[in-house]
Amino acid sequence: MTGSLDALAGVGADPRRGGYSRHGFDRADLELREWFTEQATRRGLDVHTDRNGNLWAWWGAPGPDAVVTGSHLDSVPGGGAFDGPLGVVSALEAVDLMRANGFTPGRPFAVVVFAEEEGGRFGVPCLGSRLLAGTIDPDAARRLTDPDGVTLAEAVAAAGLDPARLGRDEQALGRLGRFVELHVEQGKGLVDLAAPVGVASSILAHGRWRFRFTGEGNHAGATPIGDRRDPMLPAAALVGAARRAARAVDGARATVGRLVPNPGGSNVIASTVDVWLDARAADTPRARAVVDEITALATTAAADEGCEVTVTEESYGDTVYFDPALRDRLAGALGGVPALPTGAGHDAGILAGAVPTAMLFVRNPTGVSHAPAEHAEPRDCAAGVTALATVLTDLTA
Ligand code: GLV
Ligand code: MN
Ligand code: MN
Ligand code: MN
């Protein structure tokens, strides 16, 4: 198992940040997609790219009511080796194991790689699965822009896709019967349960918001304090407000992981500051309450400094409860593994709105994710492959 992940170790390694930076349709991502195509083809799977840039590898003929497994290959900036690739590599190894057991699926079966799951380049997470499911407006998606000013339309065109065809994919949706995603756990739930593998029960309601504070660019030395309209002041207030608002709501989380002052000179009062807020909670009323509280405080702080603020909701998804029957079927096939919730978003969470969907988690001894310390032991990865092969055999027999 780790053998296959090791094969990816050189792709998108980011010595400056540590870990990996692999973003939708960038050079590293294209290399990983080629690697997947080669690996799947070598296994006799038939690979094609859908209209939204997701890769499908069919074992046998494509058809309706298909059982599909897979994950993503892109990462957050400076991410770990397992978030995404573990699910893809495990899917390929599950195919090997099923074959070694003399098994051939009795119904359509595919391994999928979803595009730009993390939103590390264009800001919206689960972009490939959202486009496929039709939960994002394709015009808005085409206009999404990366930090270098490249639009999604331009990026997919450069990757050989037709940007005009982005959007809800009736053909792919029509074939999907059930979806199972294996993923490294992104907390310590399985460590605490002393279990190598578990099934997911739910995903927190979560979203991303971009606040733009606009003030007046000026000189750091020549501008008296009383004459300033410094957008960094409300931006800093937002960071503190996020922590306080999340703390006030049971189980809520609020994070500012990205803050970009423009122009970003150490002796320059910024003219604008963009602040990205990631907020999550058990349900939509709680998530909205956290974001509303933060927005109110940020708006007051902006007015106090003579600044303007605009807020853009970049993505939002309600709480996901995975299909209970499918979850129980997986847990049963695996001899009764534990079910646990997660605070992390997944393509499986998007697909759960369209078809019965389930997830398998593999124990992460560090409990750390979206950082280089993310880990899974080879023995647990092997247990994940065995579990996935067991479940897929059950579902496709
Ligand atoms: C993606 O992994 C997310 O939960 O942000
Ligand atoms: Mn992730
Ligand atoms: Mn992931
Ligand atoms: Mn994710």
Automatic annotation (TrEMBL):
Amino-acid positions noted as binding Zn(2+) 1 in the UniProt annotation, renumbered to this chain: 72, 83, 183
A Pfam family annotated for this UniProt entry: Peptidase_M20
Binding site for Zn(2+) 2: 83, 118, 370
Highest taxon above the source species: Bacteria
KW Cell membrane (keyword) present: no
Cofactor: how and how many bound: Binds 2 Zn(2+) ions per subunit.
Keyword Zinc found: yes
Residues the entry annotates as binding allantoate: 208, 267, 280
Keyword annotations from UniProtKB, A to Z: Hydrolase, Metal-binding, Zinc
Gene Ontology MF terms: hydrolase activity, acting on carbon-nitrogen (but not peptide) bonds, in linear amidines; metal ion binding
Cofactor(s) named in the record: Zn(2+)
Family: Belongs to the peptidase M20 family.
The protein's name: Allantoate amidohydrolase
